[in-house]
Structure formats: structure tokens, C-alpha cells
Amino acid sequence: LAKTTQPISMDSYEGQEVNITCSHNNIATNDYITWYQQFPSQGPRFIIQGYKTKVTNEVASLFIPADRKSSTLSLPRVSLSDTAVYYCLVAPFSGGYNKLIFGAGTRLAVHP
Amino acid sequence: GAVVSQHPSRVICKSGTSVKIECRSLDFQATTMFWYRQFPKKSLMLMATSNEGSKATYEQGVEKDKFLINHASLTLSTLTVTSAHPEDSSFYICSARVTGGVEGTNEKLFFGSGTQLSVL
């Protein structure tokens, strides 16, 4: 499975847009990119998933360039409650989770 | 989205006792579930893959006799920490794989809320 690299931590302020970039140079043709959010003492929560170009849902956008070697999670107008760890994962869209490896994630701190 | 229920959320036990953690998929069938362990401020570490109707597949370094996994139905997987010791204290998380159809998108994982195990 493709290895991912993310910044260890990021700081932002309420109301700002936050972009977290994940590098996955060895992504395979049938790999999808999925982002999860984890609050302390809770299980990760699915945020968004994509394969190429741009995906948007009610909480975030995911930008994937043509070469798919990286992806950027965009959180619009963050609030204090967005303080969490964000994980980028790459795996085949079918049957690929048997060896899913979580990286260190990005610890986002949103300040007042 | 798909809901995975994990119980209990927190358990404190004495050293030497066994603790069972349940993971249920509430609105879908999960032929495959995963068990993770997480230490404070660390990432999730995959312990084992739980397959309905067959033996679990354990990751290297994880003692299968220590961490017993049973996946007897399509909606329930259990992790039993046998003869628990203080070093087993950790946050345990289960997840279930959802194939395309539930969300109208591709396969993804949904996670339980986790179980904080403290062994005294």
C-alpha cells in the first residue's frame, strides 16, 4: 500500500480556511484517497474520499492533482471544534483495507 | 453513514482478569472488521483482521492467545483481552469495512467510538 506523508501539526484560527496536504508518491492506479478525523478518545470519523480532481461534501473539499501523487484536504472556515488529528489514507477501493496502515496524521489546533 | 457501535467505552479491571470488547455494525453487514490499538498521542496500529466465520488474521507481533477475536455473525466481532496486565492498558478501536452501496460510493471504513482499557 502507498505510504503517505503529512505535516505533523498545523495551527490555525477560527474562521480561516485550512489546507492539509498529503504526499503519496507511490499511489497505485486503483488506489483511492480517504481522509479521517479523530478527536481525543474517539474512533476516527470518515470525512471525504476521492480518486481524482475535486470532491466536495458538506464538511470539506478534497483536491487531487492530475498525477495523484498528493492530495489536499481543505476545511473552510474552521472552528474550535475542528481541532483534531487528520489522517490521510490510500488504499484500493475494493479489498484494500486488510493492510491499511495509519500514518502519524496531522494534529490541527484551531485557536480563538 | 454506516454506524459501528463499540462497547464498553471504558473499562477498568484488575490484573489477571479478562475483558471482552464488542463491536457491532448496526445498519449493515460486515464480513470484515478490524481491530486497532492506539497509545496516547500515537497513531492507530492494526492488530488483527476479523473475518466472519473464520479465524482472525493477526499482525506480526500481536499475540493471538492474548487477544482473542471472534466474529460469529455478520454484525458482531468481539475482542477479548485475556489475563490482562497493566501493559495492555490502551485505547482499542474497531472498524468495519463497508463496500459500495451503503453510501453510494466506494469501499471505506467506519469506526467504533473506541474502548479505553485500564488495567490496575
- Total number of β-strand segments of chain A? 9
Radius of gyration of chain B: 14 Å
The structure class of chain A reads: mainly beta
The SSE order of chain A reads: EEEEEEEEE
Instruction: Give the N-to-C terminal Cα separation of chain A.
Output: 38 Å
Question: How far apart lie the N and C ends of chain B?
Answer: 37 Å
Show unreliable segments of chain B.
101-105
What helical percentage do the residues of chain A reach?
under 10%
Strand order of the largest sheet of chain A: 1-9-8-3-4
How are the SSEs placed, and which strands pair?
The complex is a heterodimer of chains A (112) and B (120).
Chain A: E1 9-13, E2 18-23, E3 31-38, E4 45-50, E5 53-56, E6 61-64, E7 70-75, E8 84-92, E9 106-111
Parallel strand pairs in A: 1-9
Antiparallel strand pairs in A: 2-7, 3-4, 3-8, 5-6, 6-7, 8-9
Chain B: E1 4-7, E2 10-13, E3 19-25, E4 32-38, E5 44-51, E6 57-58, E7 67-73, E8 76-81, E9 90-98, E10 108-111, E11 115-119
Parallel strand pairs in B: 2-11
Antiparallel strand pairs in B: 1-3, 3-8, 4-5, 4-9, 5-6, 7-8, 9-10, 9-11
